[in-house]
Automatic annotation (TrEMBL):
Cited SUPFAM superfamilies: cAMP-binding domain-like
PROSITE patterns xref list: CNMP_BINDING_3
Transmembrane helix as UniProt keyword: yes
A cellular component term, taken from the record's GO annotations: cytosol
Cyclic nucleotide-binding domain: residues covered: 120-200
Annotated SMART domains: cNMP
Name this polypeptide is given: Cyclic nucleotide-binding domain-containing protein
Coiled-coil segments: none
Signal sequence segment: none
Source superkingdom: Bacteria
GO function term, MF aspect, one: DNA-binding transcription factor activity
PANTHER family, per the entry: CRP FAMILY TRANSCRIPTIONAL REGULATORY PROTEIN, DNA-BINDING TRANSCRIPTIONAL DUAL REGULATOR CRP
CDD domains noted in UniProt: CAP_ED (cd00038)
Amino acid sequence: MTSGSELIQGAGSQLAGFVASMLASPAHMVAGLAAALGVGLVVAGALTRTMLPLRWLAVGSNVGLLTYAVLQPSPITMIVSLSLLPINLFRAIEVTRLTRRVARAGVQADMAALWLRPHMKRRRLKAGRTLFTKGDPADRLYLLAEGELELADIGVPLLPGRIFGEVALFSPDHNRTHTVRCVTDCLILEIHESTVRQLFFQQPAFAFHLVQLLAQRLGEDVQRAQNSSKLER
């Protein structure tokens, strides 16, 4: 029966033999380092929770294991690494670009309107016309291109360049929260809710700006409610 010490000695001799073979030539040494790097990055990737570093760790592990498979011919390892490398590289670049676009959207939020315009329909309204009334069902988002609008129920003006109608699209009841009336003749651009949702998931700049708008408008509503309660007191 083999003792524990003999097993340890056997494992030690095998490890020593492996190290010796790796040090026998520069190619063996590089192959050993590449294999260790590849395995290490696989382990690191398994412990990573965010997508961007996970993808780049996967690319690194594929490169390391592919290098090992070339220097120490291993057909299966080579086939697997060659299959996964382009997929992981494509996804890593895609996630990197997406992250940068979201970062730029935070600085250039006004550019979000550019995503809307190609999908919007023009609509002209005369002064005094009501676009929608508080409580109406909401299925469109609007951009004021020309003229002046007013939130008639609270007396707040809307000027050209203003995106509006977004709060109701994301509210539980899908109803308009204000009445919008034309102060002057207006040119309004409108886009259907289904297209808005597609853009929200496809265009980070638009999604980022829309989230900012929702937070800003809700904050304004809270502030108006607080000011109104103070005046009533």
